[in-house]
Amino acid sequence: MYIPFEQMPDHARVWIYQANRPLSSSESERISQTLEQGTKGWEAHGSPLQASFEIRFNQVVVVAVNESVNQASGCSIDASTRWFKELAAELHIDFFNRDLAVLRGDALALIPLGQIKSNVESGKIRPADLIIRPLIDQISNYRSAWLCPANESYISRHF
Question: pTM of the entire structure?
Fold first, then answer.
């Protein structure tokens, strides 16, 4: 069952899908329609999941499940992955992009993982630049630490 994202509790589980490019308004609308419909009927072993999603920076989709209502199962997680695979095929977007996402104003700059060190050395990535931490597991961490300074992140060794 779908609920608004801001009503999801701090302990809710999250999955982050980073697109390889910014989304157009029509693409964001299509994604929102698909995910709202999907989360309304999302189940784990026949039990409804309390779920939601939000789109950030026109490029990142965050899906959440309140597992204190019902826990997501392997099959239900696979179902959500299928939503993104189908949207990817329809919209020609890679939602499984793992490039480093650096916040530049209201948009993201994606840096291929193999180019992080050279971008730090050249000053294109600075210690205080905010980056997305893609492996957040709970909304509380997403709300408090999803964006973090580069020098406090997994790329800190390059500074």
Answer: 0.93
